[in-house]
Amino acid sequence: MNHALAVIATSLGILFAISGCSNGDYDDLRQMMEQQVELVEETSTKLTSARSTGDVVAEVDHFSAAMDQLAPKAQQLGAKHRETIEAISRGRIPDALAPIMRRVNELETDFSRAAAGMIRFVGDPQVEAARRKFEQAIQTLVWRLNEARPQNP
After folding, report:
1. pLDDT tens, 55-85?
2. Which residues contact 40 (CB under 8 A, 6 or more apart)?
3. Do the beta carbons of residue 131 and residue 53 sit within 8 Å?
4. Could you give the CA distance from residue 32 to residue 35 in angstroms, rounded to a whole number?
5. What is d(CA 153, CA 108) in angstroms, rounded to the nearest whole number?
6. DSSP secondary structure string, 19-53?
7. What is the DSSP letter of 141?
8. What global pTM score does this model have?
9. How far is CA 49 from CA 77, 126, 140, in A?
């Protein structure tokens, strides 16, 4: 009986250790994604309420600068978690990243709508330059790193 309890306790310990490690493996990636999601949420709100080209340019400059700061770490994490990023792009999301990916999916529609709002200021050279910076910055979002890489047919 004691031997059976010891085997069960050891098995549960191993299971919890494996579960803990697998979640811990994604902590750095999840934290980066959370930082980027917060930035995207903030930018979506500000672009939606932009009243002038100056508002748009200022927010895109802020977003681009913040993404530039996060980009080296995001690229490093993208390399470290290459297989995970590729799996995410194919719809296979690790359980540990499911909550943040739900936020990403909810946010993508709002973010696209907010970015499309820049169309109100089409033709303004400052907004056009800001839009190009914006598109480059978007490519450094962790969940899009796989999309940024050229794919072999």
Report:
1. 999 999 999 999 889 988 988 988 899 899 8
2. 107, 111, 141
3. no
4. 5
5. 27
6. HHHHHHHTHHHHHHHHHHHHHHHHHHHHHHT--SH
7. S
8. 0.72
9. 33, 18, 24
